[in-house]
Amino acid sequence: MGFFVRTIPLRKRRAKLHKHLIELMQRCASGDPAGVQSAVKKIDPFDKLSGNARELETMVQNFVETAVRMACSSRQLAVLRPLCEASHWTFEVQVGEDRRSFCDRILDVVLVCALSHVNIAGVRLVLSYEDWRPRAHHQFILVACRCNKVDIIQELLGDKRMRGVANQKQWIAAALESARNMRMESLRAIVNAKVLPDNSVGEGAIVMSACAKGQTGLVSELLADPNMPVKTLGLGALHIAASKGHVETMRILLDDARIRPESDGWKALDSAAVGGHLLATVELLERMRKSGSAQAARTRALRAASAWPRSYLAMEAILDAEDHRGGELDTLGLECMARVCGWDLDTPDISAIQASGLVRRFAESALSQDFVDLLGPDLVLWAIRAEDVELLQLLLAHDAVQLYGRDAEDALSSACASETTYTESEYG
């Protein structure tokens, strides 16, 4: 005699489950803890379902996670507790590449929502469940750092599950994230907690952030720390300060004997020149002069700066530096003039007068025939477009500047167009 096992069709099971889930959502929305607890108990344990349970599990996961987010956004901890304590939900769900128990997944979602809404009570609720194991992912820590609330970060730091060796990379990522976004309170909390495998990582992040923001007081304070690996971090910090044009911060770094800008060929000069920071460029040039450095750094910086219109003044400072006359730097200066010819006169970063001054420097130099042949016609056209008669006369009076054939036709056409524009604008 056999036994007949009655199997409920999946369609009916889904309909019944959907009804209970809708009830759960309604109870969460109304803030009814007892109603939520009753609805949770009505949802069957999924380990007793048939092979089609995966579809139902996914449906439950979506509804319950939505209910959790609703409760978190309204800060209803009493509603959250029945969801967090549904121990009869023993099935697992797929989270990224991992399989996690649904109970742990609910706590994950509660923690992320609590962090997003800066809800320290919700954070404490999750941490109070000793069986919960945080997912091996830095999402929690990053969200905490983004909210920049030290008390919440300290709650996480006080939990041994968050301070384990497996989470060191996550804390490093959080420290760097805080540094990039100038969230100094979060960064200090992480560094002071000694959770980083090498505390210099956090200190370095603070130094970089302080230099980018021009916080001279903080930079001085950090450099005074005997444990600060200045030799490792100093050059990078100097580059950042130069790129932002923070002269006082640069001076503090340059005055530290442990930082040797010549060890990387004064590349900080490139950063200052490309950024168009005149005072920072002049400061570095003066330091280079005192240290007796060669022209190589100025040559490289000039080449880097020549691609950016806003770097005009920095280029002028480099060309005006002492002991640069003749040789490679003058030759490179001619290349920079070619860049000037390609700049748009309407660009707000550089005026026609400034550009004309740079081209005039070219015209007054001891020009080699190769460069004159290459750039002479372009410079004449540029002077016509700029309506700089004095510069045009200077160029045409130069013995080496000769216009032939097509170059002469282009210059004549450009001049006629310029004259036509002038006449129309002057006389209507």
Automatic annotation (TrEMBL):
ANK repeats lie at residues 233-255. Transmembrane segments: none annotated. It comes from the Eukaryota. Keywords: ANK repeat. Signal peptide: none annotated. InterPro entries: Ankyrin_rpt, Ankyrin_rpt-contain_sf. This is Protein phosphatase 1 regulatory subunit 12A. It comes from Hondaea fermentalgiana.
